[in-house]
Structure formats: structure tokens, C-alpha cells
Amino acid sequence: MTTKRFIAGAVCPSCGQQDSVRMYTENGENYRECVECHYSDVMEKDPSLAGKPPVTRVSPEDRKSDDDAKKDSAVQIVRILDQ
């Protein structure tokens, strides 16, 4: 008997329904299926990122653009107003 487990927070790539995708293993292959639209496929063994992670203020320096570096090094004056 195959044990099917829901993947918390997963979104179906076909219908977009959240928390409707479950995973199971058969013959050494991992499968996922949607209980709403009955979409099913074989899961990748070594999934890769679809794109590059977004550049943030804590990203490595080699990924930041020149404009980002200028923003980080610019002097900013803070004024405190009396009420």
C-alpha cells in the first residue's frame, strides 16, 4: 500500500489551489498529485532554482550593482523635530 502525504503550503502548478497537493513514492520515483484538479507528475530528483535569488542589502558584494553600492555608501542626514 502506498502512503500519500499532503505537502503543507504547496500550490498546485495546474489549478493554483493551495494545500491540495500530496506526494507519494512508487517504484523508486516520487510523484505529486492534486486532489482538486487531479494533476499529477513525477517530481525532480535534483530541483534547481527557477531563477536567481533577489538582490538584498545583505547579498554578497559581487551580486550588487553600482547603483546599490552608491545607495549604501551615501551619507544621509536625520533631523529630529521638536514638538
Task: Give the spatial strand order of the biggest sheet.
Answer: 1-2-3-4
Uncertain parts: none
Q: Decide which structural class fits the backbone.
A: mainly beta
Encode the helix/strand succession as letters. Answer: EEEEH
Proportion in helices: under 10%
Main pleated sheet: 4 strands, antiparallel
The number of helical segments is 1
Number of strands: 4
Query: Distance N terminus to C terminus?
Result: 72 Å
Radius of gyration from the alpha-carbon trace, in angstroms: 23 Å
Principal-axes shape call: elongated
Mean pLDDT: 80
Proportion of residues in β-strands: 15-25%
Layout of helices and strands:
Blueprint: E1 5-6, E2 21-26, E3 29-34, E4 40-42, H1 66-73
Antiparallel strand pairs: 1-2, 2-3, 3-4
Which structural traits does this protein have?
mainly beta, four-stranded antiparallel sheet, 1 helix, 4 strands, 20% strand
3D architecture notes:
With 83 residues, the chain is mostly beta strands. The chain has a domain at 5-42. The protein contains one helix and four strands. A four-stranded antiparallel beta sheet has the order 1-2-3-4, with no helix packed on it. A hairpin with a 5-residue loop joins strand 3 (29-34) and strand 4 (40-42). The longest helix has 8 residues, at 66-73.
Summarize the structure.
The protein is mostly beta strands and 83 residues long. The chain has one helix and four strands.
